[in-house]
Amino acid sequence: MRTGSIDGWGVPIQTENPVAVQHFDAAVEELLSLSGDPISAVEDAVGVDDGLILGHILRAYLFLYGQSVGGVANARRIVEDIDGRVLQLDEREVLHLRAARAWAWGEWADAARSLERALLHEPRDLLALKIAQDLYFFLGESADVRGVVARVASAWRPEVPGWGYVQGMYAFGLEENAEYRLAEEFARVALDNNHEDVWATHALAHVFEMEGRTEEGIAFLIGSADHWDSSYFAVHNWWHLALYHLERGQIEEALALYDGPVRRSRSSEWLDIVDAASLLWRLSLVGLDVRQRAGQLVSDIEPLLGEPVYIFNDWHTIMAFGLAGRSDLSEQVISANQHAVGSNRVVTEKVGLGLLEGFRFFATGEFRRSVDVLVECLPLTGAVGGSHAQRDIINLTLIAAAARSGHADYARALAATRGNYRDDGSDMTERLLLTNGV
After folding, report:
1. CA 85 → CA 3, 77, 101, distances in Å?
2. How far apart are CA 366 and CA 350, in angstroms?
3. 339-391: per-residue pLDDT in tens?
4. N or C: which end of the chain has fewer CB within 10 A?
5. Buried b vs exposed e over 390-417: b needs ≥16 C-beta within 10 Å?
6. 283, 375, 365: which is closest to 320 by C-alpha?
């Protein structure tokens, strides 16, 4: 009979080896803090105790976070290996295994539901909470990005290890549901608890973005950079800084960030690729010639192409390919997405293919067709995942497409609507109209 221990958050874990628990806890905390090397930590955990099933499941999760064809294949092999073992799994292991299996085979919504059941069983299962919130984010389920944290909040008290991370996670959920005052409050509580909480930093950066508080956002990110610049999430925070500069009409500063911390390392991680593509697209919309940079980015993206895994990523490849004039690669991505599977197929058929087409039409100068497609997509775009700040690129592109296709009044109306939530105005929107002939 298998016997267990307790992890760092008070939840049972099936291993008698305290060193394995220490490594597992380190891997989970590094995932929560977006720092260190959670992959190495969990490999150490299963290296000490190969029977640590949750360790193997965490390995699968980390492969799946990469959102690559190879990562999915590796995760499937791990799940199949666990399935082949003759073990009596406890309830936590069963539910996490179901979640990993569903995610690996493309059923992301099913994975989130299994993790919700795990949290019902153990509300302080911090691994389940982190994975569930991220899955809801990928699925565009904003209400559940907040709700999944709210449903376990009563189990967390300030004296409980991990409490600060939960506050930061709740802050992000609040922000994505436009509860900006509460989001800022929870983010600051989390940061008071731990200045190096990168997710809480990110949540507050979103509040500044959505409220148009760009001067505060610039000061905040520059002032806190020492706390998050070593994070594997750092590129995304630098991307947020670039957006503040763009919003203030400081184009050269945004371009310098692209050439500096956003793209200096030429990372092949999808999160970094997405940020680079969307920043280049925004820079192009306000009149910069970014074709050479886009060509370099395309060379980094090409090895990642294959079966569709996540429409959000593929949509951003269309931006990079369009800027570089690689319509052949755009067609390849669109064709591949006609054969998407699982949760990704549902979103792709609902709105994803429309976004791919709308951005491809813009890149090839077919602005009227771009407007026609994007107007139909606009009410549905939350389903592709990502944040409001990331999806704002659809609004910007539609404004530019309307302007370039002769619909000046519509472009002005779209620009005015976008500006309503930005308290300090938007030089970005004004420059966008001027650059595109309105």
Report:
1. 17, 13, 15
2. 22
3. 999 999 999 999 999 999 999 999 999 999 999 999 999 999 999 999 999 99
4. N
5. bbbbbbbbbbbbbbbbebeebbbebbee
6. 283
Residue 84 half-sphere exposure toward CB, CA atoms < 13 A: 6
Sign of CA dihedral 178, 182, 185, 188: negative
The residue behind tokens 């949290």 is: 119
Residue 172 lies in a domain: no
pLDDT digits (tens, 9 = 90+) for 45-64: 999 999 999 999 999 999 99
Contact between 353 and 380 under an 8 Å Cβ cutoff? The reply is no
For the record, the structure tokens of 215 come out as 């001067």
Token pair belonging to 376: 């139909």
Name the token pair of 77.
């092999």
CATH of the domain at 102: 1.25.40
**Burial (CB count <10 Å: 0-12, 13-18, 19+), residue 222:** exposed
Cα–Cα–Cα angle for 387, 388, 393, nearest 5°? 105
Q: Any idea what DSSP says for residue 13?
A: E
| Domain closes at, from 85, 102, 136 | 136
